[in-house]
Amino acid sequence: MLLADIWHRLNQLEKELAKLKNENRNLKEKIESLQSLKIDKIEYKIHELKVQTLSGTLNVGLTSSGDAKDVKKVVDQIVKEEKTNIEVDLDMESPS
C-alpha cells in the first residue's frame, strides 16, 4: 500500500510540475512581447497650482543619481530651452 501511495503522489507532483513549467513559459512569452514605454516629454504645470501657505522643501520632477556637474548640464539645458530660473549648487554632497 505504501508503494502505491508514493507512486500516486509522484504522479501528482509530475503533473503539477508540468503545469508550472507551462505557466512559466507562457509568462516568459508575455514578458518578451511587452514593449518598453518611451516618454518623449514630461510637462509640469506648476503655474496651475494654488498654494496658500508653503513651507519646507518642494521637490518637483525626477531625481537624478548623477554627479552635480551632469545635473547642472541638464538644468542649464532646461533653463536655455524653457527660460526657467533654476540654480544648481555644485558644492552638494553626492549621494553615497
Written overview of the protein:
This protein has helices at 2-33, 68-82. The chain contains two helices and no strands. This is Spore germination protein GerPC. Residues 3-40 form a coiled coil. Keywords: Coiled coil.
Blueprint of the fold:
Blueprint: H1 2-33, H2 68-82
Largest sheet: none
The secondary-structure element order is: HH
Strand pairing plus helix content: what structural class? mainly alpha
Any idea how many domains? 1
User: What best-fitting shape do the alpha-carbon axes yield?
Assistant: elongated
Number of E strands:
0
Helical residue percent band: 40-55%
Low-confidence stretches: none
Strand percentage lies at under 5%
Rg over CA atoms = 28 Å
| Arithmetic mean of pLDDT | 77
Q: Could you give the distance between the termini?
A: 63 Å
Alpha plus pi helix count: 2
